[in-house]
Amino acid sequence: MKKNIFIFLPDGVGLRNFALTSFKEIGEKNNFDITYWNNTPFSITEKLGFKELKIQEKSVHPLTIVYSRARKRMELNFFDKKFNEEVYNTYNFPQSYKGINNAAKSIMVDVLTTFGSNDKGIKFVRERIKKGERTTNKYKESKKQLEEHKPDFVFCTNQRPTQAIASILAAQDLGIPTGTFIFSWDNLPKATTLVETDYYFVWSDHMKKEVLMYCPYVKEEQIFVTGTPQFESHFDKTLLQSKEEFFAAHNLDLNTKYICYSGDDIVTSPLDQYYLEDLALSVRELNQNGYSLGIIYRKCPVDFTNRYDEVLNKYKDVIVNIDPLWSPVGQSWNEIMPTKEDFALQTNICEYTEFVGNIASSMVFDFSAHDKSCLFFDYEQPQLKKGTRDIGQNYKYIHFRSKPSEEAALWVRNKKDLTAIVKDIIDGKTSSVKESKKWFEIIVGPNPTKASEKIWESINSLLKK
């Protein structure tokens, strides 16, 4: 008899890994009956033809936002004390005190953080979140749907959203086993595990250690090391066009070697456009000395700013803009949905560019899968003003300590060195590939093409318990 599995999408983040890959197909081959329990504005049935059950209610308890914000700050404070660090609180962003409503919430968060940054305080806030969410209409709707459809397992695709809490609690209160996937390599040190499930699916042994380190309420037997479907497309040769086809499709010059500049969101890199400009100036300089180079600019899919426009126009002789193929179905960052076509686009960009340049992005792993180097920019821009975030902070984060050596990426720490470094990469005199592939294995695990299969094997094994 087929097991009935709910793939829970609390927001659009999980679509990329679990609706647009071969994940569903592999599950069905393993005799699972799959329903997408859909909390997003994206219509799974209309767009993909998959069976879905829509959650209509989007409300959370009025205090959940306060408690969840406080929980993050309390945990980060606690991590600093527990591990004798100062870096964890740099994951925080400033609160808003503008307006009575914002000020009241922020003051409540401050009070809880001041007095509750300890085991007892964190446990108190965790329980208050659960108590509040059990009173919501979302909890009631979720419970009713679960009672009607009787899934054998609820797999949550993202551990971060407050939108997931009530639905997961409803499943647990009905005795339905639940699991969540840790969706990004930097999530655990950032204290973003709001969803507490019966099982946790992680990318690697490294991430398993992080769960045990940062989530003391989780036991080792609750964790499954599976890998992530995020990078599977890079190993799918059917997605690759010929170089001639790809270049023709995007009006690229076959006699030009292209560098990918991967844009960042405005929070991570508020002055990102100036690093693109610096790279463009280096490319122009090298071209004047006999090289034939260009830049493919791929923007961050959730960057809604126009901050690059001036640079793209000024340097259109060397920069080609190729936008990601994502579709907006709402206004917030987690309502910009990826497409299957973008998997192929990103894979071809990685394959047919020489290397990637960016600020602290996980694109280091995407390019490592194609045996290409990553160049991290790590110097201040003259436009940096008081109150603007310095990008150097990104490289001090805990998740960057996972690299096996500094050589896991190439670094430009002085703008004056950029042209020479780019020249050495193009000439084959320097590369980060050997060490970046070690880093890839640490973070992603040793079997990057088997993640979807491993997740289904893990679900199957726990349902047999």
How would you sum up this structure in a few lines?
The chain has 465 residues and is α/β, with parallel strands linked by helices. It has helices at residues 15-18, 23-29, 44-48, 64-82, 100-116, 119-133, 137-149, 165-173, 205-214, 243-249, 272-287, 309-314, 340-352, 363-368, 418-426, 433-444, 451-463; strands at residues 3-9, 32-38, 52-54, 153-156, 178-181, 199-202, 223-225, 257-262, 293-298, 319-321, 327-328, 336-337, 355-358, 373-377, 410-412.
CATH class of the largest domain: Alpha Beta
Tell me the CATH superfamily of the largest domain: Glycogen Phosphorylase B
Q: Based on the structure given, which CATH architecture of the largest domain is correct?
A: 3-Layer(aba) Sandwich
Strand order of the largest sheet: 3-2-1-4-5-6-7
Task: Specify Rg, calculated over alpha carbons.
Answer: 23 Å
Strand percent estimate: 5-15%
How many H/I helices? 17
Number of domains: 3
Overall pLDDT confidence: 95
What's the number of extended β-strand segments?
A: 15
Low-confidence stretches: none
Helical amount among residues, as a percent range? 25-40%
Global shape: globular
How far apart lie the N and C ends? 16 Å
Assembly level? single chain
Q: The CATH topology of the largest domain, please?
A: Rossmann fold
Main β-sheet description: 7 strands, parallel
Structural class of the secondary elements?
A: alpha/beta
Protein name: UDP-N-acetylglucosamine:LPS N-acetylglucosamine transferase
